[in-house]
Amino acid sequence: MELKTAIEKAKNDETIKKLDGYFLGSCFACIKKAKDPINEWTLLFCKDGKAVDCFVNDGSVTISKETRPLKDVKQGNPEEATVTAETALKLADSKHKKPTANILITLHQKDALVWTITMIDMTMTATSYDIDAKTGNIVKEETTSLIRQI
């Protein structure tokens, strides 16, 4: 599912329409391999230290109860992304040569609107690529081990 489709479905949902003053803070999806389709998006709507998760797939839109976000969410406009999730994913995959166990895809506001594509390989190493959502340039690359060294 394309992100634009997920956002449109969410914004047409009656519960989301009633979220007065909330902004779309981030968009998240998870897949196993780069060629897998994205079947569900999690959209985070925020307002004054409160957050509501909206889960969107082909069949439904589900809204969570209001919670506090794990950290402050910068207000941006994910709808201004000109680079698609699929394009950002292809770019990250072309740089990352190892087989993946999971791929985390996030569109969010940092200094600029960025796609963060985190590729977790079989050795539990995570490589994150921040890709400018307007230009398609990789602005940051970072690799971290997820296994605690003893």
Descriptive tags:
single chain; 150 residues; alpha+beta
Structure write-up:
There is one protein chain. It is built from 3 helices and 8 strands; from the N terminus they run H-H-E-E-E-E-H-E-E-E-E. It has 150 residues and is α+β, with helices and mostly antiparallel strands. It has one domain. Strands 4-3-2-1-5-6-7-8 form an 8-stranded antiparallel sheet, covered by helices on one side. The longest helix is centred in the middle third of the chain and has 11 residues.
Rg (CA only): 16 Å
Number of domains: 1
**From N to C, what is the helix and strand string?**
HHEEEEHEEEE
- Mean of the pLDDT scores? 94
- Per DSSP, what share of the residues sits in E-state strands of 2 or more residues? 35-45%
What class do helices, strands and sheet pairing give?
alpha+beta
Separation, N- and C-terminal Cα atoms:
41 Å
Oligomerization state: single chain
Strand order in the sheet with the most strands: 4-3-2-1-5-6-7-8
Main beta-sheet strand count, sense and barrel state: 8 strands, antiparallel
Count the strands? 8
Instruction: Report the helical percentage.
Output: 10-25%
Q: What overall geometry do the principal axes of the alpha carbons give?
A: globular
Low-pLDDT residue intervals, each spanning 5 or more residues: none
**What is the number of helical segments per DSSP (H or I, 4+ residues)?**
3
Brief write-up:
This protein has 150 residues and is of the alpha+beta class. Helix content is 16%, strand content 42%.
Secondary structure topology:
Elements: H1 3-11, H2 14-17, E1 23-31, E2 40-47, E3 50-57, E4 61-63, H3 85-95, E5 100-109, E6 113-121, E7 125-132, E8 138-145
